[in-house]
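Handout, section B. The chain below has 323 residues.
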Amino acid sequence: MSFELWVEKYRPKKLDEIVGQPEVVEALKGFVEKRMIPHLLFAGPAGTGKTTTALALANEIYRDKELVRANYMELNASDERGIDTIRVKIKDFAKTKPLGEVPFKIIHLDEADNLTSDAQQALRRIMEMYSSNARFILACNYSSKIIDPIQSRCAVFRFNPIPDKALISRIKYIAEKEDLKIREEAFESLAYIAEGDLRRAINLLQTSAAMSREITSDVIYKIAGIAAPEEVDEVIKMALSGEFLEARKTVRRLMVDYGMSAEDLVRQMHRQILQMDDLDDKFKADIVHYLGEIDFRLTEGGHGDIQISAFLARLMLLGGIRE
């Protein structure tokens, strides 16, 4: 089964099934009870349920699959982001009367922050003209890219990264339904890698299931191309204790075994350093300050192996000063 079919199969159909966004769900339920919604703006990171919430909201308002199909239109603004799409496709849909008891249609614009400035200006006017029989749901990663006149017409909902507990609960549900053999620690690994992105966690779970009959943490880390956090911690501690060559050898092994780039390793080191309890805040700040320089050099085209070696060397020097 393809990833898209997995997502569709396990996508929540009702607001109560949405995980990790309790405040948003509670507020939207009030709109459902009245069967009346304002224009909505859903903003937040990828994989946190914005599109799913929009579809669940439509299902609960129209309460019939045929009415949802007739009255709900979803467009991905990253593909159709020009002014012609707004003036023709969206306008034609918005100006026709809805079917059923609910007095409005719903137009869902996914990735609305990719709309051009001209398209957003045209959209603002259509939102005014057809507000009597059309409601807009705009979903975006960055609400700052939506012009102020549109934001002021919408009720804004912020979607947070899904907490690990809620993410693991949903992944366990899918694993049980698919009868997957997966170890308990692998769920924690999925949550670590996904960082609140449920879509990414489902993708990793499906890929892991296709690659191995028994899903373990090692399988998940290798597929994701990310080192286990314990291994990154070991590299940092070796460098701080003066074992520069051993730390460098371990880094090279990680980059070969997991196919990690220097940029990936820098990001993971940053995450692990901030989580290390045995380092004080000032010492962490010194490390992260230099890690930022390494990240900049890599962005500017610096050689990955040399830059990572330079960072490990700085860790060794800082470790000596600390002692």
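Note. The chain has a mean pLDDT of 87. Compare this with the example in section A.
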